[in-house]
């Protein structure tokens, strides 16, 4: 795997895993890391960085953006 670059920060483990599944479905490898050293010392559900290979950063951001747009559309339909 090439150098990893952060594409986003997930607020919790559930969100991070959802993003990782989305990226995997798009054929993009990813890795999760605790966002900060301080967060790793706190018990519970810390924010996590989502990292992808540098060559796939734009693809990953596009996939995440499509997910966000889909979520916004669902929210509008529910209201």
Comma- or semicolon-separated keywords:
79 residues, single chain, three-stranded antiparallel β-sheet, Alpha-Beta Plaits, 3 helices, alpha+beta
Topology, element by element:
Elements: E1 4-10, H1 13-25, E2 31-34, H2 37-41, E3 48-53, H3 57-78
Describe the structure.
By secondary structure, the protein is an alpha+beta fold. It has a single domain, classed as Alpha-Beta Plaits (2-Layer Sandwich), CATH 3.30.70. Helices cover 51% and strands 22% of the residues. The protein has three helices and three strands. Strands 1-3-2 form a three-stranded antiparallel β-sheet. The model has no long low-confidence stretch (mean pLDDT 87).
CATH architecture: 2-Layer Sandwich
CATH class: Alpha Beta
Number of continuous helical runs: 3
CATH fold-level name: Alpha-Beta Plaits
Average pLDDT, rounded to a whole number, is: 87
Task: Characterize the overall form.
Answer: flat
| Rg, nearest Å | 14 Å
Strand content: 15-25%
Helix proportion: 40-55%
Describe the structure concisely.
This protein has helices at residues 13-25, 37-41, 57-78, and strands at residues 4-10, 31-34, 48-53. The chain has 79 residues and is α+β, with helices and mostly antiparallel strands.
